[in-house]
Give the backbone structure.
Amino acid sequence: MGINLLGIQPHKVSKDLSGYITYLYGGYKTGKTTLATQMEGALLLAFEAGYNALPGVMAQDITTWGEMKQVYRELKKPEVKEVYKAVVVDTIDVAADKCKKYICQQNGIEDLGDLGYGKGWSKFKDEFNEIFRGLTQLGYAVFFLGHDKEAKDDNGNVTNIRPALSNSTREIIGGMADIYGYAKQKGSENSILVLRDRTGFIECGCRFKYIPDCIEMNYNALVDTIHAAIDKEAAEHDNKFVTDEKMEKIEAPTYDFDALMAEFQNV
């Protein structure tokens, strides 16, 4: 299909959470998995154990990156897309390690750096992007769950809180996320979800202009918060550019190489 710049329509912001990528990180038992699996049609990809206390969860254990690639192929099938609407990756920390190990095994090396300057990490990023950006292009909502890490100065003082991922992996996942939150235990009370920290002490953020700094740590609160933020910004534009419909992803076309070659030869 050709490109028609005159046929472009103004983008509408979707209030359906399934159109977005969410990255939640934090300490153990702060409710991250519970929140993510409350979305309708959620499939939990369990890279590490942690769903035993979640009744009714639909979970697939993942022990190798090869299994992740098998799941990705399954998720492309139309009949599977009818059943599942969201994919929860728990945890992205372990998923990244599995991916790195896969790249090393494929290239007969012990460490990504063994391939030469930047080459191993480039292969890792390409592989990681192919799977997880591919999931979003298939139309799935994607929840990445991960652990936190405290950065400290030479005196042992905590300078900031961020995901426990390597810098390169953080750049990939952080850049993909529309909603980037930190799950924080609030004393003996329930956890809260920090969505914006104006001091820069906690690494988090959101693409929505009117998102509050923090909310209660549960799925309904997150949905209501996103809706309220979108409504507030939509009011500035007379509600012209907002929709309740799911945001559709554009899938890259695939081609049958042999069929194309036969057609070229005929031409």
Notes: The chain is about 35% helix and 20% strand. The CA atoms of residues 259 and 265 lie 10 Å apart. Residues 11-15, 241-245 have pLDDT under 50 and may be disordered.
